[in-house]
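Milestone M4 deliverable, item 7.
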Amino acid sequence: MALVKSGWLWRQSSILRRWKRNWFVLYLDGSLVYYHDKTQRDMDGRIHIKYSCRDVRTGRECRDVQPPDGKSRDCLLTVVLRDGSKTTLCAESEDDAVAWKMAVLEAKSTPVRLHPPKRGASSRHGLRAGVGGAQPPPFCLAAPGVTHVIVREDPYRVSGDQMALGLLAGAATGAALGSFMWMPCWF
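Output delivered:
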């Protein structure tokens, strides 16, 4: 997925209202993911900006929020979600807070369509081979000046639910076939 912005931000916890420093990564599909550290191994949380973000506020618009020690109110950034909750962040500088706001609003407004992989697609980039070379798929219509991101699901990705269901079906089939194999011995 296309990376829009990444960097360190302070995040205020929802229960105790303590500030914690997290590594944030914003993707163009609208996923704002935050990790324990820059290695991105331990995910602390995810916000789906495209679907759940209602508003983004910076600086003085962030009322009733005290910034972390040593930080200015101008460094604050609040993501207001559709369910009424808020995620309060604090950047290293006022310019960084404005940059994060612009990046979040860009990710929120960029159209993203999810299409399952089509059979016969010959390119790993989702382009089909046609007369005269590779052509974009017919559903990719973009107006001038508008960024469209087309995301294709990985056909080889298997979720835990699918894996468990496959193992269960395999075990049931094996048990059924195993019982049929012993049938000739009964006659």
